[in-house]
Amino acid sequence: MIFKFKKCKLSYFLRSYNNGFSCKWLEYDKYGDPLTILELKSHDYSSDDINKEIIEKNILVKILASPINPADINKINGTYGYKSKGFPTIAGTEGVAQVINTYNDCDLKKGDKVIFIGDHYMGTWREFGFFKREHLYKIPAIHTMAAAMLLVNPCTAYSLLKKFIHLTPGDVIIQNGANSGVGQFVIQLAHIFGINTINIVRNRENIDQLIGNLQMLGANCVFTDDSLKSDTVKNVINKVGLPKLALNCVGGQNCLDMISHLQKDATLITYGGMSKKPVIIPTKYFIFNNLKALGFMLNHDKSTITHEITELCSYFNNNYLSLPSYKTFKLNEYKDAIHHSQTPYNTSKSMFVN
Ligand SMILES: NC(=O)c1ccc[n+]([C@@H]2O[C@H](COP(=O)([O-])OP(=O)(O)OC[C@H]3O[C@@H](n4cnc5c(N)ncnc54)[C@H](OP(=O)(O)O)[C@@H]3O)[C@@H](O)[C@H]2O)c1
To answer: 2-150+324-353, superfamily in CATH?
Structure first.
């Protein structure tokens, strides 16, 4: 068994792919429901095909793993803030890949692990792809699955905690969607930075288990959205301390109930809208509490992410950060993968692996 594995790895590295290879990918040619409009395509790349591809994009990579994030679904639905440049579009935004070949002088070499940056439509739900150097970011050695979801969830959590207000150990923040991928990294990073977190999740059958899991990550308290107005919750929050920062990825009533617990001069950052309901803030919060309400969009620029990727990778490698649970799928199981990602009260990511 071990021998077979070694043999297969060796042949993978020795193969140049210059004579051709076959590749599958998931694409859509109009906006709509991913379950109905996504199509699994495949192509046998000949050496002529390769020569045409490398005129513009001269690095061939094999995608190792790529998650399904809510933004991927919004992009396919056509509700994402940035539209694709044209159809057909290959789905998927982030992921980790291994360099197979570079067709000109370049600082990357065969076997390097890279993630994708600088474009909202990288098309990562595929087996192989040709990319420009500027869209590949060489990462430090970390676990493949951590690398696959390094950019969107951990970098967002890091930015939300670091880039808006100055938080010092002992400060308190509150967040909704606390069991989301981003939410779990917010809890863990806040714990590393000595910041206390008040976490809101939707109520569900196995709520005690979820609360226990988030506490294991470092959550100071976890409340269900339907309990936020209760005196018990108010008393606990008063004891922990009123939050100076609120992170909102849900919107609607959930967000409104959350900001009622903030201290004066607090900041609300909205970075997602999972309930698909608008953020409505009563005037009194602005006038009497001096609330500041801002939005956040992750910046994929190399210069911006280098420092945080280095820091985040060291947290992963020192076991300060753990991954949200995930379920792996092959590209041809995409319907199950999409269905899994859309299942409410799930707390598990879908991850394509090749
Ligand atoms: N602005 C940015 O740059 C940026 C970057 C990264 C992520 N985001 C956004 O952050 C959010 C979380 O992303 P993620 O990758 O961490 O997501 P994820 O791991 O897939 O988790 C999804 C979360 O949304 C919750 N949810 C689903 N439907 C909901 C509804 N109708 N009402 C309330 N909550 C609902 C789920 O809770 P249940 O368990 O209760 O279903 C879960 O907590 C998304 O909105 C995403 O677009 C934004």
So the answer is: Medium-chain alcohol dehydrogenases, catalytic domain (3.90.180.10)
How far, in Å, is the centroid of ligand 1 from the Cα of 64? 24
pTM exceeding 0.90:
yes
Give the binding-site residues of ligand 1, using a 6 Å CB cut-off. 69-71, 152-153, 156, 177, 179-182, 202, 249-250, 271-275, 296-298, 344-347, 349
What digits encode the pLDDT tens for the residues 27-85?
999 999 999 999 999 999 999 999 999 989 999 999 999 999 999 999 999 999 999 98
**Are the CB atoms for 250 and 269 separated by under 8 Å?**
no
Look up residue 272 and give its two tokens: 């997602």
Start-end of CATH 3.40.50.720 domains in the chain: 152-295
Q: Measured between alpha carbons, how far is 314 from 255 in angstroms, rounded to an integer? A: 33
Class for domain 152-295, per CATH?
alpha beta
> Where along the chain do the CATH 3.90.180.10 domains lie?
2-150+324-353
Q: How far apart are the first and last CA of the chain?
A: 20
Give the DSSP letter string of 7-65.
HHHHHHHH---TT-EEEEEEEESSSS-HHHH-EEEEEEE-HHHHHHHTTT--EEEEEEE
Task: Say which of 12, 31, 45, 80 is annotated catalytic.
Answer: 80
